[in-house]
Design goal:
- The complex is a heterodimer of chains A (115) and B (111).
- Chain A is built from no helices and 11 strands.
- Chain A has strands spanning 4-6, 10-13, 19-25, 31-38, 42-49, 56-57, 64-70, 73-78, 87-94, 105-106, 110-114.
- In chain A, strands 2, 4, 5, 6, 9, 10 and 11 form a 7-stranded mixed sheet that branches. A 4-stranded antiparallel sheet of chain A has the order 1-3-8-7, with no helix packed on it.
- In chain A, a hairpin with a 6-residue loop joins β5 (42-49) and β6.
- Chain A is globular.
- By secondary structure, chain B is an all-beta fold.
- In chain B, 0% of the residues lie in helices and 58% in strands.
- Chain B is built from no helices and 11 strands.
- In chain B, a hairpin with a 4-residue loop joins β7 and β8 (72-77).
- Chain B is globular.
- Chain B starts with a strand and ends with a strand.
- The chains are: A mainly beta (115), B mainly beta (111).
- The A-B interface holds A 4, 31, 40-43, 45, 48, 50, 90, 92, 94, 97, 99-109 and B 6, 9, 31-32, 34, 41-46, 49, 89, 93, 96-99, 101-104.
Chain lengths: 115, 111
């Protein structure tokens, strides 16, 4: 079974803090994604990566950065947390498919509260 | 053009009834339409998916109906059970692994 794990289920941070959200997948997937989920807004793509050291902006990258130093690990960084970044953050991974689409496998999510 | 519009936002159905969630899209380049199911405290998981060359796909109690000319697709859950209570996301994709999600439907099945 594919397993995507996220470092924390719940996180409370203060405005201005630097926040690291870690995601690890154990199926050697090439592609990894970070989404945020908000009520009424669904899932919005923040950043994604097709390979180590590669990153691409999603639909809402402002205020976030990412790091992918190893294939299995994809980190989301909030450089200076703000209250409007309070949300559920979901990591996902999928295998390389040479242009076609494959299922994305999601982690359980990190619920972040910024005070 | 890259949006997927999903309705309703929330749905309450009696046990044993049929749950229907609708989605519409604009971009005719979309070529894969998955549905994801999310239980509270969990990440979304693929439930069922369809490509536009077929009009219907059935897996157990779950059926996707696809209308290419109307650019609409829907999820039908037959004999709905309390265990089906979850949030459902329709989605569409045409670019390498980038999925466009609908805003979700919170389904509650009354026991």
């Amino acid at each position: 079974d594919v397993k995507v794990t996220q470092s924390s289920r719940y996180l409370v941070k203060r405005t201005g803090e630097k926040v690291f959200l870690e995601c690890v997948q154990d199926m050697d997937h090439e592609n990894m994604f970070w989404y945020r989920q908000d009520p009424g807004l669904g899932l919005r793509l923040i950043y994604f990566s097709y390979d180590v050291k590669m990153k691409e902006k999603g639909d809402i990258p402002e205020g976030y950065s990412v790091s992918r130093e190893k294939k299995e690990r994809f980190s989301l960084i909030l450089e200076s947390a703000s209250t409007n970044q309070t949300s559920m953050y979901l990591c996902a991974s999928s295998p390389e498919t040479s242009g076609s689409v494959e299922t994305q496998y999601f982690g359980p999510g990190t619920r972040l509260l910024v005070l | 053009q890259q949006q997927v519009k999903q309705s309703p936002q929330s749905l309450i159905v009696q046990k044993g009834g049929i749950s229907i969630i609708n989605c519409a899209y604009e971009n005719t380049a979309f070529d894969y339409f998955p549905w994801y199911q999310q239980f509270p405290g969990k990440g979304p998981a693929l439930l069922i998916a369809i490509r536009p060359d077929v009009s219907e796909k059935k897996e157990g109690r779950f059926t996707i109906s696809f209308n290419k000319s109307a650019k609409q697709f829907s999820l039908h859950i037959m004999d709905s059970q309390p265990g089906d209570s979850a949030t459902y996301f329709c989605a569409a994709t045409f670019v390498r692994d980038k999925i466009i999600f609908g805003k979700g439907t919170r389904l509650h099945i009354l026991p």
